[in-house]
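Note to self: keep these together.
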Amino acid sequence: MVMSRSPSQPRPALPVRPVLAAAALASLQLGAAAQTAPTQLQTITVTAERRVENIQDVPGSISVVSGDLMDALSAGGQDVRDLAGRVPSLNIESSFGRAFPRFYLRGYGNTDFHLNASQPVSLVYDDVVQENPILKGFPVFDVQSVEVLAGPQGTLFGRNTPAGVVKFDSVAPSHKRDAYFSLGFGNLGTINAEGAGNIALGPDWAMRISAQDQHRKDWVHNTDPAGQTPATEGYEDLAVRLQALYQPSQAFSALFNIHHRDLNGSPRLFRAGIIQPGTNNLIAGFNPDRMSIDGVNAQHVTSTGANARLKWSLAGADLHSITAIETVRPFSRGDVDGGSIYAYPTGALNVALFPDETSDALHGHRQLTQEFRLESRQPGPLSWQAGLYAFDERYTWENIDYSNAPPYGTGVPVYSETHQANQAWALFGEAKYQVTERFKVGAGLRYTRDKKQLYSYVPAVGGQVLDTSNGVAADTSDTKTTWDLSALYAIAPDINVYARIGTGFRASTTLPAGEFGPLSQAGPETITSYEAGIKSEFWQRRGRLSAAVYRYDVNHLQLTEVGGGGNSNTVKSANKVIGQGFELSLDLLPLDNLTLSLSTSLNDARIHDPNLTVAGCGGGCKVTSPAVPGGGGEVYVNGNQLPNAPRWTGNLNARYAIPTGGGNEFYVYTDWTYRSSVDFFLYRSIEFTGKPLTEGGLRAGYDWNNGKYDLALYVRNLTNQIRVTGAIDFNNLTGFINDPRTYGLQFKAIF
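Structure:
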């Protein structure tokens, strides 16, 4: 868990284009709170159980990111992936770039890159589930905090939450004078502008406008003179949020939210032959700011959403209604082979076996959700909540393969499209009972029904279209009851221990038929999770400790097999996956001007299915998983760690301030994150094992006028450690890397 600032300090600003910021803040008057050194850790409140509670009193593994760390992460223009490793057991990666993050908790996630992929980690933004993976890339700005809830959360949250929830809560509008503006400049042509502010519209109405504009130039240059993309890896990412609060009385309130994103950038840059054969080292001669591709790299994402959160205070209970619509239109085209020379054998930089250039897009997407929730408000030992949730999503997914068209061949692009509709509804309830002053128990129950319809239009050899009899249509219907039980006991005034058992569920998945294979399908997966932990405050609240041990069993885990010698693309089920480990977080205030936050986790998440096989790599790697005798390249994966699941993660943050009098101070803030090695695919291989990765950041600045102004120098990836962080396994050791060192200057003002 990452420590927040002291209550006596102003809410930290996050790094709007200056014109937007000026328009948003023009009507606001200046103001600043006095800044004093903290003498205790701030109490952290969370809404992990849909109520505002002290984090110490919630029986579950919960981590919070806020304050100085959010400032540091936003300065370099990174997206949501930069939260990876900042709290125990959280990993985030992507093969799409900024548009499509994939989340993992306790090693449990989904490597599927399809635009209809479902993930077991749910992302909830302002109480609305963001189901489509493109929606999960919405920028993080002007947020109160980020909560990470590990373990199944299916009783109270949306759908598809067997691994956990990552929850973002925007700063809500109010009548307070509360505004900020931040502007930063860095290398690689990086410009980051962000701002937000409240506008009072009378006694009953208040508005908040928030915006962020992130820019980076195309800093990777193409050495192929005939290449269609001269340079790549840049982006222009603009997001705006408008909120309006109507509260005519204590008995009713309405919070309206409209948000929009416009991203013009680059898909993830694949680089052919960057891994040295027989090792997982970068090949000699590799240069991060050089590439050699002959195809097109382009990415555009437009998303717009709106929601209304209404609350009525009734006799003894509060009724909540959350109505939301989300829409997204992504287009991403990339040179997947990552090279410009085609030859065999391979094993050389920029050399691929064959050309592969594809694009993906969504058309007509819309997600509708509605939730009604009744929450008790009466005093006494019993508290409860119950509700109804409905979900409806539909879209058309378009895929185009340009590999047979010029300049690669004389044919035409291969076009396919998939139509998917998904409807789900659920009834849920939860109750807590304070048995004694020290002992509290809880239970939750949820019944879910989930239906999907999918149809693919796929040109076959000879130009004919496959019909439904050829297996390009699917219709699934799943029902499941999930539950959880918890207990929390205060063994001392500042020490709580807890235990929790929870179950979760993810509905069936269908991967459409395509150029390289037929439709494939996997049934629903279920999880049972066991967790016990301790939460303690000590040293006169200058220290805070939380620790947990856990084990989970997943039945019929959905796994994506992609690549291999046949360039396969299918979904399979593992009979069982067992995960176990521990998580530890420690916050300290050893000196009034020094704060420390440390965390670590062990996540052992292994496949238990002696009969499960997948295709071995087709990209020239040396597979170490046992081969199936006479299996044509198939290998066993029993006992393997789940892909992109580091066994160890660690995080360290520290801030030291040097007061200079008059409410001014110099400060230094540093943050470091570590993850151990990872397997990129279901099988194990030498080349496709990601090395351990340690990244550090440093921020040094000057706060003046009681924290109203801040000027800071920052560095991200301080040691410039470059690692292969993902790969393509069918075309010559093709991979992609993390960002190199970035640095710059940032100014912010609090109004």
